[in-house]
């Protein structure tokens, strides 16, 4: 990858927009993915949501990834993220390797714990166990991919002489990217050598400090290559600054209000819940300056370059319909402008 090259990924929730039925939500989101393929986006990233009928229909990202891989030829398809503690790790290893074969090596294994306890309550799993469950599941999955046969005895899962089939198409396995948020998670994942997703919701100064700890831990672990750092951020591009700011405003305000009123009730930490409430009360001008990437193509190019310089990112995971209420035609226009006028500056 060249010095300023960046992976452009489109993040999708498979939103339930407006009065759409669930079937219409699937159809619209699949068509948006196909447009991203046609426009030359590098990756599509799939969310995972549970028990939120008013928000999204994407409860099974692995199945949707398989469908997208069968429909597309070029774009990489990633999980953004698979909530690993909710799963049987052997099953995930089998399914992810299968999708990797269906895609002929275009699969990206994005994983995390989720910052919402609601998912864990629904699956009857204690959120307090999410970290050890995550680490144990990841250890099992990588062993299953690397070894012909293996045994494992852990706190939550134990296996005796199992052989997972198929092995991944990519060797030794698909790229692994981990969603990180807490201060202690950055150096932990850095020492393991995995790439990371970070969020624009984290204040910039704090994010710079945590990224420094990630890079330091990689170096101390003897990992010489630079880690992949992708930032997830709402993005909207229009022909004028006024349109770029005004057209997605109602949807952005809805997203922030929903987070404060609904998601904060099951946030995993007081820090996350407080941040949701603060952001919901921010003036829109402050949201534009610090929490979203809305602007003309030239403005978005300039801000992306500053992200590269300040944070060292080499990937962007773009929420192209933040809040899920932007009209489909406007979302597609924004994708087109990104493809034609923004992305060429980073290739």
Describe the structure.
The chain has 347 residues and is of the alpha/beta class. The protein has helices at 22-39, 61-71, 89-102, 118-122, 130-146, 185-192, 204-220, 241-246, 249-261, 270-280, 284-290, 297-311, 328-342; strands at 7-12, 43-46, 76-79, 82-83, 107-112, 150-153, 158-162, 176-179, 195-199, 229-237, 293-295, 315-319. 45% of the residues lie in helices and 16% in strands. The strands form two sheets. It has an eight-stranded parallel β-barrel with strand order 1-2-3-5-8-9-10-12, surrounded by five helices. Strands 6-7 form a two-stranded antiparallel ribbon. Helix 1 (22-39) runs parallel beside helix 13 (328-342), helix 2 packs parallel to helix 3 and helix 9 (249-261) runs antiparallel to helix 10. The chain starts with 6 loop residues before the first strand and ends in a 5-residue tail after the last helix.
Structure in a nutshell:
The chain has 13 helices and 12 strands.
Proportion in helices: 40-55%
Rounded mean pLDDT is 95
CATH topology: TIM Barrel
- Helices and strands, in order, run as EHEHEEHEHHEEEHEHEHHHHEHEH
Shape: globular
Task: List the SSEs and their pairings.
Elements: E1 7-12, H1 22-39, E2 43-46, H2 61-71, E3 76-79, E4 82-83, H3 89-102, E5 107-112, H4 118-122, H5 130-146, E6 150-153, E7 158-162, E8 176-179, H6 185-192, E9 195-199, H7 204-220, E10 229-237, H8 241-246, H9 249-261, H10 270-280, H11 284-290, E11 293-295, H12 297-311, E12 315-319, H13 328-342
Parallel strand pairs: 1-2, 1-12, 2-3, 3-5, 4-5, 5-8, 8-9, 9-10, 10-11, 10-12
Antiparallel strand pairs: 6-7
Helix pairs in contact: 1-13, 2-3, 3-5, 6-7, 9-10, 12-13
């Amino acid at each position: 990858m060249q010095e300023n090259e960046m992976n452009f990924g489109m993040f999708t929730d498979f939103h339930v927009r407006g009065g759409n039925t669930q079937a219409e939500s699937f159809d619209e989101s699949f068509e948006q993915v196909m447009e991203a393929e046609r426009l030359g986006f590098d990756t599509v990233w799939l969310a995972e949501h549970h028990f939120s009928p008013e928000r999204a229909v994407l409860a099974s990202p692995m199945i949707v990834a398989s469908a997208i891989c069968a429909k597309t030829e070029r774009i990489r398809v990633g999980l953004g993220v698979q909530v690993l503690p909710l799963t049987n790790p052997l099953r995930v290893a089998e399914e992810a390797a299968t999708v990797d074969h269906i895609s002929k090596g275009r699969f990206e294994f994005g994983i995390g714990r989720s910052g919402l306890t609601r998912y864990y309550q629904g699956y009857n799993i204690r959120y307090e166990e999410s970290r050890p469950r995550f680490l144990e599941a990841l250890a099992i999955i990588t062993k299953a991919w690397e070894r012909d046969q293996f045994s494992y005895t852990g706190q939550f899962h134990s296996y005796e002489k199992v052989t997972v089939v198929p092995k991944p198409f990519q060797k030794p396995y698909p790229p692994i990217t981990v969603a990180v948020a807490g201060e202690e998670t950055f150096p932990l994942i850095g020492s393991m050598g995995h790439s990371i997703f970070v969020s624009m919701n984290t204040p910039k100064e704090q994010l710079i400090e945590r990224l420094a700890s990630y890079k330091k831990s990689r170096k101390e672990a003897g990992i010489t290559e630079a880690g992949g750092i992708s930032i997830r951020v709402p993005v909207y591009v229009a022909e004028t600054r006024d349109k770029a700011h005004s057209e997605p405003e109602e949807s952005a305000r809805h997203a922030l209000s929903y987070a404060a009123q609904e998601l904060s009730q099951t946030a995993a930490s007081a820090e996350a819940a407080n941040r949701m409430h603060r952001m919901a009360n921010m003036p829109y001008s402050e949201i534009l300056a610090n929490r979203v990437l809305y602007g003309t193509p030239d403005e978005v190019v300039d801000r992306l370059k500053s992200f590269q310089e300040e944070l060292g990112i080499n990937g962007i995971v773009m929420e192209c319909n933040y809040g899920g209420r932007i009209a489909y035609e406007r979302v597609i226009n924004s994708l087109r402008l990104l493809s034609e006028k923004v992305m060429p500056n980073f290739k």
